[in-house]
Protein backbone atom coordinates (compact mmCIF):
# COMPACT_ATOMS: atom_id res chain seq x y z
CA UNK A 1 0.00 0.00 0.00
CA UNK A 2 1.42 3.40 -0.95
CA UNK A 3 2.13 5.94 1.73
CA UNK A 4 1.31 9.63 1.51
CA UNK A 5 3.71 12.44 0.76
CA UNK A 6 2.98 14.18 4.01
CA UNK A 7 1.99 11.89 6.92
CA UNK A 8 3.22 14.57 9.34
CA UNK A 9 0.13 16.60 8.57
CA UNK A 10 -2.14 13.93 10.09
CA UNK A 11 0.26 13.34 12.99
CA UNK A 12 0.28 17.05 13.84
CA UNK A 13 -3.54 17.02 13.78
CA UNK A 14 -3.64 14.04 16.18
CA UNK A 15 -1.22 15.58 18.68
CA UNK A 16 -2.97 18.98 18.50
CA UNK A 17 -6.35 17.34 19.06
CA UNK A 18 -4.95 15.44 22.07
CA UNK A 19 -3.62 18.73 23.47
CA UNK A 20 -7.08 20.29 23.01
CA UNK A 21 -8.75 17.45 24.94
CA UNK A 22 -6.10 17.45 27.69
CA UNK A 23 -8.01 19.82 29.97
CA UNK A 24 -11.42 18.27 29.28
CA UNK A 25 -13.02 21.30 27.63
CA UNK A 26 -16.80 21.53 27.17
CA UNK A 27 -18.26 20.12 23.94
CA UNK A 28 -18.80 23.57 22.42
CA UNK A 29 -15.08 24.28 22.70
CA UNK A 30 -14.12 20.89 21.25
CA UNK A 31 -16.35 21.56 18.25
CA UNK A 32 -15.07 25.13 17.83
CA UNK A 33 -11.34 24.63 18.37
CA UNK A 34 -11.33 21.07 17.00
CA UNK A 35 -13.20 22.32 13.94
CA UNK A 36 -10.47 24.90 13.34
CA UNK A 37 -7.82 22.15 13.60
CA UNK A 38 -9.76 19.97 11.15
CA UNK A 39 -10.06 22.89 8.77
CA UNK A 40 -6.27 23.22 8.80
CA UNK A 41 -5.89 19.47 8.17
CA UNK A 42 -8.16 19.41 5.13
CA UNK A 43 -6.95 22.73 3.71
CA UNK A 44 -4.28 20.80 1.80
CA UNK A 45 -4.96 17.41 0.20
CA UNK A 46 -1.48 15.86 0.32
CA UNK A 47 -1.52 13.61 3.36
CA UNK A 48 -4.14 10.86 2.95
CA UNK A 49 -2.47 7.59 1.88
CA UNK A 50 -4.09 6.08 -1.24
CA UNK A 51 -5.02 2.92 0.66
CA UNK A 52 -7.51 4.99 2.70
CA UNK A 53 -8.99 6.72 -0.34
CA UNK A 54 -10.28 3.64 -2.19
CA UNK A 55 -14.01 3.32 -2.91
CA UNK A 56 -15.77 -0.05 -3.07
CA UNK A 57 -18.67 -0.74 -5.42
CA UNK A 58 -20.94 -2.26 -2.72
CA UNK A 59 -20.99 0.59 -0.20
CA UNK A 60 -19.20 3.63 1.20
CA UNK A 61 -16.00 2.88 3.13
CA UNK A 62 -15.06 3.96 6.65
CA UNK A 63 -11.30 3.74 7.09
CA UNK A 64 -10.04 4.35 10.62
CA UNK A 65 -6.94 6.56 10.50
CA UNK A 66 -6.26 6.94 14.25
CA UNK A 67 -7.87 5.90 17.52
CA UNK A 68 -6.96 7.64 20.74
CA UNK A 69 -5.48 5.43 23.49
CA UNK A 70 -8.37 6.26 25.84
CA UNK A 71 -10.97 6.13 23.04
CA UNK A 72 -11.60 9.86 23.59
CA UNK A 73 -11.62 10.39 19.82
CA UNK A 74 -11.22 8.62 16.50
CA UNK A 75 -10.44 9.88 12.98
CA UNK A 76 -12.09 8.21 10.00
CA UNK A 77 -11.76 8.64 6.21
CA UNK A 78 -15.21 8.31 4.58
CA UNK A 79 -14.92 7.33 0.95
CA UNK A 80 -18.03 7.64 -1.21
CA UNK A 81 -18.27 5.80 -4.51
CA UNK A 82 -20.47 7.39 -7.20
CA UNK A 83 -24.02 7.88 -5.90
CA UNK A 84 -23.45 6.14 -2.57
CA UNK A 85 -25.47 7.14 0.50
CA UNK A 86 -25.75 6.34 4.21
CA UNK A 87 -28.99 5.28 5.83
CA UNK A 88 -30.59 7.89 8.12
CA UNK A 89 -28.57 7.50 11.34
CA UNK A 90 -27.49 9.14 14.60
CA UNK A 91 -24.08 9.27 16.35
CA UNK A 92 -24.68 9.73 20.13
CA UNK A 93 -21.27 11.46 20.41
CA UNK A 94 -19.95 14.78 19.08
CA UNK A 95 -18.63 14.79 15.55
CA UNK A 96 -16.73 16.91 13.04
CA UNK A 97 -16.92 16.39 9.28
CA UNK A 98 -14.30 17.98 7.04
CA UNK A 99 -14.68 17.75 3.28
CA UNK A 100 -11.42 16.76 1.59
CA UNK A 101 -12.24 15.78 -2.00
CA UNK A 102 -15.41 15.98 -4.15
CA UNK A 103 -18.61 16.99 -2.35
CA UNK A 104 -21.41 15.53 -0.25
CA UNK A 105 -24.96 16.42 0.77
CA UNK A 106 -25.97 16.16 4.43
CA UNK A 107 -29.69 16.14 5.19
CA UNK A 108 -30.67 16.75 8.82
CA UNK A 109 -33.79 15.07 10.25
CA UNK A 110 -36.03 15.88 13.24
CA UNK A 111 -38.67 13.81 14.94
CA UNK A 112 -42.19 15.17 14.41
CA UNK A 113 -44.78 15.24 17.21
CA UNK A 114 -46.21 12.01 15.76
CA UNK A 115 -42.82 10.27 16.06
CA UNK A 116 -41.94 10.07 12.38
CA UNK A 117 -38.81 11.69 10.93
CA UNK A 118 -38.99 14.85 8.89
CA UNK A 119 -36.27 16.44 6.80
CA UNK A 120 -35.13 19.67 8.48
CA UNK A 121 -34.47 22.29 5.84
CA UNK A 122 -32.64 21.71 2.61
CA UNK A 123 -29.66 19.37 2.33
CA UNK A 124 -26.37 21.07 3.16
CA UNK A 125 -23.73 20.80 0.46
CA UNK A 126 -20.20 20.28 1.77
CA UNK A 127 -17.35 21.25 -0.53
CA UNK A 128 -13.59 20.86 0.01
CA UNK A 129 -12.41 22.93 2.97
CA UNK A 130 -15.85 22.95 4.66
CA UNK A 131 -16.22 21.67 8.23
CA UNK A 132 -19.57 20.63 9.71
CA UNK A 133 -20.28 19.89 13.39
CA UNK A 134 -22.53 17.27 14.98
CA UNK A 135 -23.85 17.39 18.52
CA UNK A 136 -26.24 14.85 20.06
CA UNK A 137 -27.70 17.63 22.25
CA UNK A 138 -28.50 19.78 19.19
CA UNK A 139 -29.90 16.78 17.27
CA UNK A 140 -27.61 14.50 15.30
CA UNK A 141 -29.88 12.46 13.03
CA UNK A 142 -28.88 12.83 9.40
CA UNK A 143 -28.36 11.15 6.05
CA UNK A 144 -25.24 11.81 4.00
CA UNK A 145 -24.63 11.10 0.33
CA UNK A 146 -22.07 11.66 -2.38
CA UNK A 147 -23.02 14.79 -4.33
CA UNK A 148 -21.70 13.14 -7.49
CA UNK A 149 -23.16 10.29 -9.50
CA UNK A 150 -19.94 9.77 -11.44
CA UNK A 151 -16.99 10.38 -9.12
CA UNK A 152 -15.52 9.65 -5.70
CA UNK A 153 -15.89 12.01 -2.70
CA UNK A 154 -13.92 11.84 0.56
CA UNK A 155 -14.61 13.45 3.94
CA UNK A 156 -12.59 13.21 7.14
CA UNK A 157 -14.65 12.58 10.29
CA UNK A 158 -13.62 13.05 13.90
CA UNK A 159 -15.83 11.57 16.64
CA UNK A 160 -15.84 11.92 20.42
CA UNK A 161 -15.30 8.18 20.93
CA UNK A 162 -13.97 5.11 19.15
CA UNK A 163 -16.88 5.21 16.68
CA UNK A 164 -16.21 1.54 15.81
CA UNK A 165 -17.49 0.67 19.29
CA UNK A 166 -20.47 3.04 19.65
CA UNK A 167 -23.98 1.58 19.90
CA UNK A 168 -26.18 3.84 17.78
CA UNK A 169 -29.22 3.70 15.49
CA UNK A 170 -30.36 3.74 11.89
CA UNK A 171 -33.86 5.03 11.17
CA UNK A 172 -36.70 4.56 8.71
CA UNK A 173 -38.75 7.63 7.75
CA UNK A 174 -41.61 6.37 9.94
CA UNK A 175 -39.26 6.93 12.91
CA UNK A 176 -38.67 3.25 13.67
CA UNK A 177 -35.05 2.49 14.52
CA UNK A 178 -32.57 -0.38 14.50
CA UNK A 179 -29.43 -0.62 16.66
CA UNK A 180 -26.09 -0.65 14.81
CA UNK A 181 -22.34 -0.33 15.35
CA UNK A 182 -20.56 0.92 12.28
CA UNK A 183 -17.19 -0.86 12.57
CA UNK A 184 -14.35 -0.13 10.13
CA UNK A 185 -13.50 -1.14 6.56
CA UNK A 186 -9.76 -1.50 7.21
CA UNK A 187 -7.66 -3.98 9.19
CA UNK A 188 -4.52 -1.80 9.14
CA UNK A 189 -3.94 1.85 10.03
CA UNK A 190 -1.35 4.17 8.51
CA UNK A 191 1.87 4.39 10.54
CA UNK A 192 2.24 8.18 10.77
CA UNK A 193 4.68 8.03 13.70
CA UNK A 194 8.10 7.34 12.18
CA UNK A 195 9.96 10.64 12.40
CA UNK A 196 13.49 9.24 12.07
CA UNK A 197 14.20 10.59 8.57
CA UNK A 198 12.70 14.06 9.04
CA UNK A 199 14.46 14.54 12.40
CA UNK A 200 17.79 13.40 10.95
CA UNK A 201 17.47 16.13 8.33
CA UNK A 202 16.75 18.85 10.89
CA UNK B 1 -1.83 -9.63 6.23
CA UNK B 2 -3.43 -12.01 8.72
CA UNK B 3 -5.07 -10.63 11.83
CA UNK B 4 -4.76 -12.12 15.31
CA UNK B 5 -7.33 -14.22 17.10
CA UNK B 6 -7.55 -11.79 19.97
CA UNK B 7 -6.88 -8.12 19.09
CA UNK B 8 -8.98 -7.11 22.13
CA UNK B 9 -6.10 -8.13 24.37
CA UNK B 10 -3.86 -5.39 22.94
CA UNK B 11 -6.73 -2.87 22.88
CA UNK B 12 -7.45 -3.50 26.57
CA UNK B 13 -3.75 -2.97 27.33
CA UNK B 14 -3.72 0.36 25.46
CA UNK B 15 -6.82 1.70 27.23
CA UNK B 16 -5.58 0.50 30.66
CA UNK B 17 -2.19 2.13 30.04
CA UNK B 18 -3.91 5.39 29.06
CA UNK B 19 -5.96 5.23 32.28
CA UNK B 20 -2.74 4.71 34.27
CA UNK B 21 -1.14 7.80 32.70
CA UNK B 22 -4.29 9.94 33.09
CA UNK B 23 -3.26 11.38 36.46
CA UNK B 24 0.41 11.84 35.50
CA UNK B 25 1.88 9.41 38.05
CA UNK B 26 5.60 9.45 38.91
CA UNK B 27 7.89 7.25 36.79
CA UNK B 28 8.25 4.62 39.54
CA UNK B 29 4.49 4.07 39.50
CA UNK B 30 4.35 3.90 35.71
CA UNK B 31 7.05 1.22 35.75
CA UNK B 32 5.38 -0.71 38.59
CA UNK B 33 1.73 -0.55 37.53
CA UNK B 34 2.51 -0.46 33.81
CA UNK B 35 4.79 -3.46 34.28
CA UNK B 36 1.91 -5.37 35.85
CA UNK B 37 -0.30 -4.48 32.87
CA UNK B 38 2.41 -5.60 30.43
CA UNK B 39 2.79 -8.85 32.35
CA UNK B 40 -0.93 -9.50 31.84
CA UNK B 41 -0.63 -8.69 28.13
CA UNK B 42 2.22 -11.12 27.49
CA UNK B 43 0.87 -13.86 29.78
CA UNK B 44 -1.03 -15.26 26.79
CA UNK B 45 0.48 -15.34 23.28
CA UNK B 46 -2.70 -15.15 21.18
CA UNK B 47 -3.00 -11.50 20.18
CA UNK B 48 0.02 -10.45 18.07
CA UNK B 49 -0.89 -10.44 14.36
CA UNK B 50 1.55 -12.48 12.24
CA UNK B 51 2.51 -9.40 10.21
CA UNK B 52 4.19 -7.97 13.33
CA UNK B 53 6.01 -11.20 14.19
CA UNK B 54 8.10 -11.53 11.00
CA UNK B 55 11.91 -11.53 11.27
CA UNK B 56 14.13 -10.15 8.50
CA UNK B 57 17.54 -11.62 7.66
CA UNK B 58 19.37 -8.23 7.69
CA UNK B 59 18.48 -7.02 11.16
CA UNK B 60 15.99 -7.16 14.05
CA UNK B 61 12.61 -5.57 13.36
CA UNK B 62 10.80 -2.87 15.37
CA UNK B 63 7.09 -2.93 14.53
CA UNK B 64 5.06 -0.12 16.03
CA UNK B 65 1.76 -1.51 17.36
CA UNK B 66 0.26 1.67 18.85
CA UNK B 67 1.27 5.29 19.39
CA UNK B 68 -0.56 7.44 21.91
CA UNK B 69 -2.25 10.57 20.52
CA UNK B 70 -0.08 12.83 22.70
CA UNK B 71 3.04 10.67 22.17
CA UNK B 72 3.00 9.86 25.90
CA UNK B 73 3.75 6.22 25.08
CA UNK B 74 4.32 3.79 22.23
CA UNK B 75 4.13 0.00 21.98
CA UNK B 76 6.61 -1.87 19.78
CA UNK B 77 7.03 -5.53 18.80
CA UNK B 78 10.75 -6.39 18.67
CA UNK B 79 11.38 -9.40 16.45
CA UNK B 80 14.79 -11.06 16.64
CA UNK B 81 15.99 -13.33 13.89
CA UNK B 82 18.46 -16.09 14.88
CA UNK B 83 21.54 -14.58 16.53
CA UNK B 84 20.55 -10.94 15.96
CA UNK B 85 21.70 -8.22 18.35
CA UNK B 86 21.30 -4.49 18.97
CA UNK B 87 24.24 -2.13 19.26
CA UNK B 88 24.92 -0.80 22.77
CA UNK B 89 22.33 2.00 23.12
CA UNK B 90 20.36 4.19 25.50
CA UNK B 91 16.68 5.25 25.51
CA UNK B 92 16.41 8.61 27.36
CA UNK B 93 12.79 7.73 28.31
CA UNK B 94 11.33 5.07 30.61
CA UNK B 95 10.81 1.65 29.10
CA UNK B 96 9.19 -1.71 29.76
CA UNK B 97 10.24 -4.94 28.03
CA UNK B 98 7.96 -7.96 28.16
CA UNK B 99 9.15 -11.27 26.71
CA UNK B 100 6.50 -12.89 24.55
CA UNK B 101 8.19 -15.67 22.57
CA UNK B 102 11.67 -17.25 22.69
CA UNK B 103 14.25 -15.56 24.92
CA UNK B 104 16.72 -12.69 24.90
CA UNK B 105 19.79 -11.58 26.82
CA UNK B 106 20.03 -8.00 28.07
CA UNK B 107 23.46 -6.76 29.10
CA UNK B 108 23.56 -3.54 31.13
CA UNK B 109 26.50 -1.14 30.75
CA UNK B 110 27.93 1.58 33.00
CA UNK B 111 30.44 4.31 32.26
CA UNK B 112 33.74 3.79 34.05
CA UNK B 113 35.64 6.69 35.66
CA UNK B 114 37.79 6.81 32.50
CA UNK B 115 34.69 7.25 30.30
CA UNK B 116 34.65 3.84 28.64
CA UNK B 117 31.70 1.46 28.96
CA UNK B 118 31.85 -1.57 31.21
CA UNK B 119 29.40 -4.46 31.34
CA UNK B 120 27.51 -4.34 34.62
CA UNK B 121 27.06 -7.84 35.97
CA UNK B 122 26.07 -10.85 33.91
CA UNK B 123 23.57 -10.59 31.05
CA UNK B 124 19.98 -10.96 32.21
CA UNK B 125 18.03 -13.71 30.46
CA UNK B 126 14.42 -12.81 29.69
CA UNK B 127 12.02 -15.70 29.17
CA UNK B 128 8.32 -15.57 28.21
CA UNK B 129 6.25 -13.82 30.87
CA UNK B 130 9.22 -11.81 32.21
CA UNK B 131 9.01 -7.99 32.35
CA UNK B 132 12.10 -5.77 32.63
CA UNK B 133 12.11 -2.04 33.38
CA UNK B 134 14.32 0.73 32.00
CA UNK B 135 14.85 4.13 33.61
CA UNK B 136 17.19 6.85 32.34
CA UNK B 137 17.74 7.98 35.95
CA UNK B 138 18.84 4.48 37.02
CA UNK B 139 21.05 4.06 33.92
CA UNK B 140 19.55 2.80 30.67
CA UNK B 141 22.53 1.84 28.49
CA UNK B 142 22.28 -1.77 27.37
CA UNK B 143 22.72 -4.27 24.56
CA UNK B 144 20.05 -6.84 23.78
CA UNK B 145 20.34 -10.02 21.73
CA UNK B 146 18.35 -13.07 20.77
CA UNK B 147 19.24 -15.90 23.17
CA UNK B 148 18.87 -18.35 20.28
CA UNK B 149 21.14 -18.91 17.28
CA UNK B 150 18.50 -20.95 15.48
CA UNK B 151 15.07 -19.47 16.21
CA UNK B 152 13.02 -16.26 16.42
CA UNK B 153 12.40 -14.37 19.67
CA UNK B 154 9.84 -11.61 20.23
CA UNK B 155 9.56 -9.04 23.02
CA UNK B 156 6.96 -6.30 23.47
CA UNK B 157 8.38 -2.89 24.42
CA UNK B 158 6.54 0.09 25.89
CA UNK B 159 8.32 3.46 25.95
CA UNK B 160 7.46 6.78 27.58
CA UNK B 161 7.38 8.59 24.22
CA UNK B 162 6.93 7.94 20.52
CA UNK B 163 10.24 6.08 20.37
CA UNK B 164 10.31 6.57 16.58
CA UNK B 165 10.95 10.27 17.27
CA UNK B 166 13.40 10.13 20.18
CA UNK B 167 16.93 11.41 19.68
CA UNK B 168 19.21 8.93 21.48
CA UNK B 169 22.63 7.32 21.20
CA UNK B 170 24.48 4.18 20.25
CA UNK B 171 27.85 3.53 21.92
CA UNK B 172 31.16 1.86 21.23
CA UNK B 173 32.87 0.12 24.16
CA UNK B 174 35.39 2.99 24.37
CA UNK B 175 32.41 5.17 25.41
CA UNK B 176 32.20 7.18 22.17
CA UNK B 177 28.64 7.72 21.01
CA UNK B 178 26.67 8.44 17.86
CA UNK B 179 23.21 10.05 17.70
CA UNK B 180 20.39 7.89 16.32
CA UNK B 181 16.60 7.74 16.01
CA UNK B 182 15.34 4.20 15.73
CA UNK B 183 12.30 4.66 13.47
CA UNK B 184 9.97 1.75 12.70
CA UNK B 185 10.06 -1.24 10.36
CA UNK B 186 6.35 -1.06 9.46
CA UNK B 187 4.26 1.38 7.45
CA UNK B 188 0.92 0.06 8.75
CA UNK B 189 -0.36 -0.59 12.27
CA UNK B 190 -2.88 -3.24 13.29
CA UNK B 191 -6.44 -1.94 13.52
CA UNK B 192 -7.41 -3.23 16.97
CA UNK B 193 -10.36 -0.85 17.33
CA UNK B 194 -13.25 -2.47 15.46
CA UNK B 195 -15.56 -3.78 18.17
CA UNK B 196 -18.70 -4.06 16.01
CA UNK B 197 -18.83 -7.87 15.87
CA UNK B 198 -17.99 -8.54 19.52
CA UNK B 199 -20.48 -5.93 20.75
CA UNK B 200 -23.23 -7.31 18.48
CA UNK B 201 -22.77 -10.71 20.14
CA UNK B 202 -23.01 -9.35 23.70
FE1 LIG C 1 -23.09 10.64 10.17
FE1 LIG D 1 16.81 -1.04 24.41
MG1 LIG E 1 -4.07 8.99 23.48
UniProtKB/TrEMBL annotation, chains A, B:
Residues annotated to bind Fe cation: 89, 91, 142
Top-level taxonomic group: Bacteria
GO MF, one example: cysteine dioxygenase activity
EC number assigned by the record: 1.13.11.20
Keywords of this entry: Dioxygenase, Iron, Metal-binding, Oxidoreductase
PANTHER family: CYSTEINE DIOXYGENASE (PTHR12918), CYSTEINE DIOXYGENASE TYPE 1 (PTHR12918:SF1)
Family per record: Belongs to the cysteine dioxygenase family.
Name the UniProt record assigns to this protein: Cysteine dioxygenase
Taxonomic source organism: Collimonas fungivorans (strain Ter331)
Amino acid sequence: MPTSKNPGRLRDFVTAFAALLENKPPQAQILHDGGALLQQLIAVDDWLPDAYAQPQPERYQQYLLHADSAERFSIVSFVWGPGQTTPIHDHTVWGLIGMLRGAEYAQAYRRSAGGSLQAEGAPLKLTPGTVETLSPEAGDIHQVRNAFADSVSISIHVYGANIGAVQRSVYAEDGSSKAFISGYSNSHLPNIWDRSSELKKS
